[in-house]
Amino acid sequence: MFKPYELLESILLDIENNIKNDINTSVLCKKYGISNSYLRSLFNFAFNQSIAAYIRSRKLAASLNDILETDSNIINIAIDYGFEYEQSYIRSFQREFGITPGNLRKTGHILKIKPPLQLLDENKLGDDGVFFGLDIVLVPTFYFIGKRHRIPYEKIMEVTPGLAKQFMDNEHTQIKGVVNPYVYIGISSNANPEEKHCEYTTSVQVKNLKSIPNGFCGDTFETTMCARIRCILHYNNSDFNKDIVSKMSNGIQFFTQNEKIKYELSVNKIYLQKIDTRLYDGAYFQMEWFTPVTIKQ
After folding, report:
1. Which of 149, 169, 185, 240 has the fewest CB atoms within 10 Å, i.e. the most exposed one?
2. How far apart are CA 78 and CA 100, in angstroms?
3. Average pLDDT, whole number, for the chain?
């Protein structure tokens, strides 16, 4: 079984090395023993774009040399790069570059192309993970209902994973009006080393706060600018543990030390974790971590 970094790196290399060899998602799935739907979700989660669109963009970019440096017929170039029909190649080419292959040959117009994706060493998260970010995103206001826990600060890493599993396994089904029952949201507040305790809420997003079951609490996460880190780990879902949380925290700290980042992370206020349990395939565990930010003064 490939580790997440190795899997994604190998997929990117396969695409580049097989541009003319009819590379597609089916070929990649067969090689790496994963489902087509999972490959699509994994690639989109990692790179914020569809793998099919990425392969098409890379094929079109590679075909530019044939257009500009050879006298090959457009139909032959189209077939060489896996397009079944000349017109489908021309339409895709024009959508990608804003010009047809024929007009490009006539004008020599300068084009902007998408470079190949690559993973860097800093994307590695220990031996078993890979993470991406920082992305600065705006999280819209949403309502959530869940169980609130008061945890000694020094035990946050140890306790919260078990609370999350307990909530998703046994408790969240009691909540009505859930927006997406597969998405877990963990919200931490007062996570400050100077405080003795942290409040941690295991929750799901809901449409409104009109029906809060006994023993549960409801609250609102206001619209907030956040730094987001996306993480893929090679773990069994039942092994969601303090080691994962610790690695995510270390990932955030890595970026806080980057002088090029124009935002400061408000790590002492509130942060949330988001896990879509449908994205778990038995081998790769995916998580998003959001921390409110302010612009550096």
Report:
1. 169
2. 13
3. 86
User: Looking at the whole model, is its pTM more than 0.85?
Assistant: no
The pLDDT of residue 27 is above 60: yes
For residue 118, being part of any structural domain is answered with no
Q: Which of 58, 79, 107 is the last residue of a domain?
A: 107
Q: Is residue 154 part of a domain?
A: yes
- CATH number of domain containing 175: 3.20.80.10
- Split at pLDDT 50, 70, 90, the class of 281 is low
Q: How far apart are CA 25 and CA 111, in angstroms?
A: 27
Q: Which of 173, 98, 121, 175 is nearest to 144 (CA)?
A: 175
Range of the domain at 94: 4-107
102 shares its domain with 138: no
Among candidates 140, 210, 220, which has minimal Cα distance to 175? Answer: 210
Please give the Cα distance from 149 to 162 (Å, whole number): 12
Provide the sign of the torsion angle of the four alpha carbons 196, 146, 174, 185, taken in this order: negative
How many domains does the chain fold into? 2
Residues 203, 282, single domain; the answer is: yes
From CA 289, how far away is CA 274, in angstroms rounded?
6
As given in the structure block, the two tokens for residue 72 are 């090959």
What confidence tier does 76 reach under pLDDT thresholds 50, 70, 90?
very high
3-state secondary structure of 112: coil
CA distance 166 to 256: 31
